Each structure stands twice: as C-alpha cells, then as structure tokens.
Amino acid sequence: MKDLIFASNNMHKLEEVRSMLGLKYNIVSLKQVGYNQEIPENQDTLQGNALQKARVIYNQYHKNCFADDTGLEIEALDGRPGVYSARYAGEHCSFEDNMNKVLAEMQNEQNRKACFRTVIALILDGKEYLFEGRVDGVILREKHGKDGFGYDPVFLPDGFDASFAEMSLEQKNAISHRGRAIAKLAQFLINL
After folding, report:
1. Catalytic residues
2. Which domains are assigned to the chain?
3. What is the C-alpha separation between 124 and 141, in angstroms, rounded?
4. Given pLDDT bands bounded at 50, 70 and 90, which one contains residue 190?
C-alpha cells in the first residue's frame, strides 16, 4: 500500500478520506509526518489555497500528497463565506461561531440557495492535478442534527430531507462536495 500525505490534521476530514481511499492508499496525516505548524492559506480562491497547502508539504517532504480547500457559497450573500468559510466569524472562531454568523446574516433572506465546493490539489511525482466536487442545496433557518462538522447542521442538500449533520458518514460521503472531489481523485489514482 502506498503512502499519500493528506495536508490536514482535521480528524473529520481524515476519517472521510480514509473511508474512501483507505483500501489502496495509506492516508498519512500531517501529525504522522511530524508537521505541526499551520499551513498558510492566504490565497483568494479555493484552488489557490489547496495548491498552496499541497506545495508546502511536497516541498518539505518530497512525498506524494494532496490538500483540499472547501467553501460554502451562499447566493444571497454574494458567494460568502466562500474561501473564508473556516474563519468567517474571525480568527480562532469555532464552527458554531461561523454557523451563527451565517444564520444571523440569512435571517431575513428568502433566497436560501447555497452550494458547497471542494477543490483537491494532488501532487504526484512532482506533477500537479486538481479535482473539484460540488453539491447544491439551501441554508436552513436553524440547525438540524449533531453529526458532521462545519456548516453541516445548516445545509440541506437538494433532493434530501436531512441536513448533512443528520446523515451518516456513508450517506454524506456519497453525495457531498468532498466526497465527489475525493471520488474524482480516487478514480484518477485507480487508473494510474
């Protein structure tokens, strides 16, 4: 089994990725390779941030790796929080703070359309590849469910009657933005 460094220490993301790629690849976290600093994320696009993170790890360890960046884009908020989704309520904020800010900003909005987008940057033997996943839905008026992370309790994917936070990991992976991006990454890796 080949090692593939995932430029993340987010245990929720690692669990999702390992459940989808774990049979063919040993997904290694930043902690496992001894990288304990924050990776810079100062680009103004999801693609830019994903590439920046992957390049930092590849340049330091010279091992195959990938990184992702995800954003919640809300139509009524002109695409916000977007690339700032993880720190929308400010530096060192919690998932709860971010959700509360979105709910407050959306309180009087009738247009609840939103999408989650994930961009994965893979560096394999020095070559860079990009994969994108997207899921459309709406922002709920209040939180539903206890599972998941990030904005999962306030996002209802189109065609479903359960928020991401009310779904099992398997259900969410089958339709989520990250799941779709990872599926494209997995298909690419399998076909090598």
Report:
1. 69
2. 2-190 (3.90.950.10)
3. 42
4. confident
